[in-house]
Specification:
With about 190 residues, this protein is of the alpha+beta class. Helices cover about 20% and strands about 30% of the residues. The chain has 3 helices and 9 strands; from the N terminus they run ααββββββββαβ. The chain is globular, with a radius of gyration of 21 Å.
Length: about 190
C-alpha cells in the first residue's frame, strides 16, 4: 500500500511539473506586443543592421548583410530602403514608405508597393518599435501580431548580453524566439 501511495505521489508530481513546463518554456502567444510610447523619428532615421529576424516570405532571398535605411520625407512620411545580399552574392533592395499611426511615431504602416498603388487597402504591414535604447543604437521591431520581429543595431554586431536582453523583451511579448534567425553581417 505504501509503495502504491508513493508511486501515485511521484506520478502526480511529475504530471504537475510537466503541465507547468510548457508555461515557462514557451512564449505566451496570447500576450500582445506593445509599442513604445514615442520615438524621436530624427534619431531613428539612418542606417540599421539586421541582427536577427523571424523568417518571412519577403526576405526569402536574403542570406546576409541585411540593412534598413530610414529617411524623413518632406511630407513627414518615412522613406524605407531595405537591402541584403542573396545566395548568388548579389545585392538586392526594396524601397518603400512608412506612415505614422500614432503621435509618438512608434507605430508605423509600411508599404513596398509602387507609389501609385499604395492607396490599395490591406497592403501595408505593421512596423512597431517595441524597444529602443536611449541612444538609438539597438531596437526591437514587430507588430500587433507575432508574424514579424527584427532586432536591429547601428553596428553590424551587438554583444551577447544586449542580444539576450532584447530576446527577453521579445519573449515577454509572446514571440517564439526559438525561431529567430541571426543575420550574417560581413561588413
Amino acid at each position: 500500500m505504501k509503495l502504491l501511495f508513493k508511486s501515485l505521489v511521484i506520478s502526480s508530481s511529475l504530471a504537475a511539473v510537466s503541465l507547468m513546463l510548457p508555461l515557462s518554456t514557451y512564449a505566451d502567444t496570447n500576450t500582445k506586443p506593445v509599442a513604445v510610447e514615442s520615438i524621436d523619428i530624427n534619431k531613428y532615421a539612418g542606417k540599421w543592421y539586421e541582427i536577427a529576424h523571424l523568417p518571412m516570405f519577403f526576405q526569402r532571398n536574403c542570406v546576409a548583410n541585411t540593412t534598413a535605411n530610414y529617411s524623413i520625407n518632406a511630407d513627414k512620411t518615412v522613406g524605407v530602403l531595405n537591402s541584403c545580399t542573396t545566395k548568388k552574392g548579389e545585392m538586392i533592395s526594396s524601397e518603400g514608405v512608412a506612415y505614422s499611426q500614432n503621435e509618438g511615431n512608434s507605430k508605423l504602416k509600411v508599404s513596398f508597393l509602387p507609389s501609385g498603388l499604395r492607396w490599395i487597402p490591406f497592403t501595408k504591414g505593421d512596423y512597431w518599435v517595441l524597444r529602443v535604447d536611449p541612444n538609438y543604437q539597438v531596437a526591437l521591431v514587430g507588430g500587433p501580431s507575432h508574424k514579424y520581429l527584427w532586432i536591429l543595431s547601428r553596428s553590424p554586431q551587438i554583444d551577447e548580453a544586449t542580444y539576450q536582453s532584447y530576446l527577453q523583451t521579445a519573449k515577454s511579448y509572446g514571440y517564439d524566439v526559438s525561431k529567430l534567425v541571426k543575420t550574417t553581417q560581413s561588413k
